[in-house]
Amino acid sequence: MPSAERLRGEPVAAEIRADVRDRVHELGERGVTPTLATVVMSDDPADERFVELKHAACRDLDIASRDVRIDPDAPAERLHQAIDRLCADPAVDGVFVQVPLPDHVALAEVRQRLDPATDIDCLSFTNLGRLVRGDPRYLPATPAAVRRLLTTYEVPIEGEDVAIVGRSEIVGKPLTNLLLRDAPDGNATVTVCHSRTSNLGAVTRQADIVVTAAGVPGLVDGSMLSRGVTVVDVSANRIESGSEGKTQVVGDVDFESAAAVAEAITPVPGGVGPVTLAMLVSNVVLAAERRADAG
Ligand code: NAP
């Protein structure tokens, strides 16, 4: 019978949203409405859902938002022009580019173009460099959500062994840098695994905290975890369930077997996802505050 504590995201997200609401109110008194612009160059329904969630979160918090769509078959220049335009617009505080981008569009060029001041998800080379240096301008939303879940539920990070499964530039690598920071909510000893890791279980069994972001349902089960571990499952994999073409969202972790040995575990859905969303809107407000302060 699974006994692990559930690290639910919604109460953590609600705490962040309450803070955001207060800050939006204060900005309103200064005549400032924080504004997010999302840029989507994809026709994947999953991207559509993710972006709509961002706009819904903004509406709920009185943050203005704009939705820029670019045909995924259009030349890369169309995306570049949209980014340049939004970054130069004084009414836009945060610019979020949905990734992955189509194959013919180089992510590196997008990273180069984004203005670090409006790059609220830490995609630009400058903001990534600051994160690596340990001095981030904005915390990337998903890695920040993982850390916030851990700290809110009082899971120690400092001095702990953390195994991160996945080395993507959106989750694994920035999370590594965040947990390595010389701070009480950092200072972890981090091991990063990927598809060529020869014995994944041998690594995860050594860890006090296992974070999975591989996009592979069932990749990690209870036999690959040590008793008392904390498990954070970032992945949101849509799989078919039943015969009527229905789908469900699952993580990388086999929840039942993992919860039987873990001290604490995030549910999927309902773990990292809601916190990520709250972190992103919080960054939009931070960008607006900085812009207002700069006057
Ligand atoms: P990604 O770019 O596809 O990266 C996946 C990573 O997992 C890669 O580093 C890959 O290794 C590694 N991997 C794949 N199979 C593996 C295996 N069998 N053993 C060990 N490592 C393996 O994915 P992503 O963009 O980081 O997203 C990962 C998951 O997180 C997805 O399910 C996505 O939907 C979810 N996600 C959730 C949130 C949220 O806020 N909840 C945000 C972003 C993403 P290689 O580098 O060797 O290929």
Index terms:
single chain; 295 residues; alpha/beta; Rossmann fold; 2 domains; six-stranded parallel β-sheet; three-stranded parallel β-sheet; 10 helices; binds NADP nicotinamide-adenine-dinucleotide phosphate; NADP; methionine biosynthesis; Bifunctional protein FolD
**Which structural category fits the helices and strands?**
alpha/beta
Termini separation comes to 57 Å
The tally of helices reads 10
CA radius of gyration? 19 Å
CATH architecture of the largest domain, by name, is: 3-Layer(aba) Sandwich
**CATH fold-level label of the largest domain:** Rossmann fold
Mind explaining what this structure looks like?
Belongs to the tetrahydrofolate dehydrogenase/cyclohydrolase family. Its EC number is 1.5.1.5, 3.5.4.9. The protein is an alpha/beta fold and 295 residues long. The protein has two domains: 32-119, Rossmann fold (3-Layer(aba) Sandwich), CATH 3.40.50.10860; 141-273, Rossmann fold (3-Layer(aba) Sandwich), CATH 3.40.50.720. It is 41% helix and 16% strand. The protein has helices at residues 9-29, 45-60, 76-88, 107-113, 125-133, 141-152, 172-180, 200-204, 255-261, 272-294; strands spanning 5-6, 35-40, 64-69, 94-97, 161-165, 189-193, 209-212, 230-233, 237-241, 246-250, 264-265. The strands form three sheets. A six-stranded parallel β-sheet has the order 1-11-8-7-5-6, sandwiched between helices. It has a three-stranded parallel β-sheet with strand order 3-2-4, with helices on both faces. The protein has a two-stranded antiparallel ribbon with strand order 9-10. β9 (237-241) and β10 form a beta hairpin. α1 (9-29) runs parallel beside α10 (272-294). The longest helix has 23 residues, at 272-294. The termini are far apart. The structure holds NADP nicotinamide-adenine-dinucleotide phosphate (NAP). Residues 142, 165-168, 170-172, 193-197, 200, 213-216, 219, 234-237, 272-273, 276 line the site of NADP nicotinamide-adenine-dinucleotide phosphate.
